[in-house]
Write a structure and sequence with these properties.
3 helices, alpha/beta, three-stranded antiparallel beta sheet, six-stranded mixed beta sheet, about 170 residues, globular, 9 strands, binds inosinic acid, about 40% strand, Rossmann fold
Length: about 170
């Protein structure tokens, strides 16, 4: 059994996302943007953020295989690739959480072959204390401690993605 504590409330998420949207609009004035959402965890964040931005935004998705339960295996494979063309376009990778940094590191290299005009990175959460590879993050929602979180897109064994807040999972309580 386990228990869920609220770590970041729905209200806190909403106001932080409004600020991130403003920053992105400042940086991409008049430009089209491609949001590349990394499935499945980024989906809730991506749609809420996109709705607050007035630029034209194309949606692309990729799914990677890298994480089993609570432990990162370290190995990354592309399970689902982008379907559209991003050549010459301005891409923002949308992540739920940057942990070791391996996923973003992989993506930044992988996407080069598609020749986008630019790639930036945006994550709802960052756990800097877990970083194994220093990756550039352009937009960060919240920085958190080294603890396992769920909700607002993030799962524990595929559950809890639809919680409207970010919770802290506590085992054995
Ligand atoms: P990284 O490659 O180690 O940076 O891992 C990033 C991925 O690990 C995220 O996109 C999540 O899918 C998963 N992940 C890392 N920490 C958590 C967590 O606390 N809760 C849920 N998923 C997590």
């Amino acid at each position: 059994m386990g228990k869920i504590d609220v770590l970041i409330s729905e209200k806190q998420i909403e106001s932080r996302i409004a600020k991130l949207a403003d920053e992105i609009m400042q940086d991409y004035k008049g430009k089209e943007i491609v949001f590349l959402g990394i499935l499945k965890g980024s989906i809730v964040f991506m749609t809420d953020l996109a709705k607050k931005i007035k630029n034209d935004i194309e949606f692309e998705f990729m799914q990677l295989q890298s994480y089993e339960g609570e432990n990162s295996t370290g190995k990354i494979e592309v399970k689902q690739d982008i379907t559209g063309r991003i050549e010459g376009k301005d891409v923002i990778i949308i992540e739920d959480i940057v942990d070791t940094g391996r996923t973003l590191e992989f993506l930044l290299q992988y996407l080069e072959k598609f020749k986008p005009n630019s790639i930036k990175t945006c994550t709802l959460l960052s756990k800097p204390s877990r970083r194994e590879i220093e990756v550039p993050i352009d937009y960060t929602g919240f920085t958190i401690e080294n603890e396992f979180v769920i909700g607002y897109g993030m799962d524990y064994n595929q559950k809890y993605r639809n919680l409207p807040y970010i919770g802290r999972w506590r085992e054995n309580v």
